[in-house]
Amino acid sequence: MAKTPVFYSFHFGNDAMRVQQIRNIGSIEGNAPTTPNEWETLKRTGKKSVENWIDQNMKYKRCIIVLIGSETAGRPWVEHEIIKAWNDGKAILGIYIHNIKCPRNGTSRKGENPFDQIKFANGKKISDYVPCYDPNSINAYGDIAENMSNWISHAISNKAN
Question: Residue ranges of the Thoeris protein ThsB TIR-like domain (predicted)?
Fold first, then answer.
């Protein structure tokens, strides 16, 4: 089975180690990880450079996966990526990752749904159309590994945008 190309959106500073574990699942083809130094260097080059990096990395992806940690909602680049994905007609889904154990910090509190914060002119929120999955707290990694391909397929076949 061919791997589906995806783009991961997440709060880099808070969740990079949790996200790396999800990248290692291997059932999908995700964008290559950026190191903390690369991300900080990119951010210092200015807003337009970051937007261009996002555009290039999202270009050929079929699905955008927002990995939701304790502080993901309200992050400006995550919001930008969600809006861009929606406007580009990409499939989108969210996965809560607070129960993935970080080697440094363990698990964390469940964050707010970032799709709740983005509203259309008619008052509806993107969360009215985009699914978010909250994996089993006892084995979050296993639940994600077992179900991610199906979640992606569902998002692709049920795009509302």
Answer: 7-99
pTM: 0.86
Side-chain-facing half-sphere of 122: CA atoms under 13 Å: 3
Count the domains in the chain.
Answer: 1
Is 16 exposed, middle or buried (CB count within 10 Å of its CB: 0-12, 13-18, 19+)?
A: middle
The interaxial angle of helices 47-58 and 76-87, nearest 10 deg, is 50
The CATH number of whichever domain residue 64 belongs to comes to 3.40.50
Report the alpha-carbon distance of residue 58 to residue 131 in Å, rounded.
19
The domain containing residue 118 runs over which residues? Answer: 4-157
Tokens, residue 92: 């989108």
| One-character DSSP codes across 20-34 | HHHHTT-SEEEPPP-
pLDDT digits (tens, 9 = 90+) for 41-78: 666 677 888 888 888 889 989 999 999 999 999 999 99
| 113 three-state secondary structure | coil
CA–CA separation, 73 and 97 (whole Å): 13
- For residue 1, the model assigns a pLDDT of 43
**29 within 8 A of 3, measured Cβ to Cβ:** yes
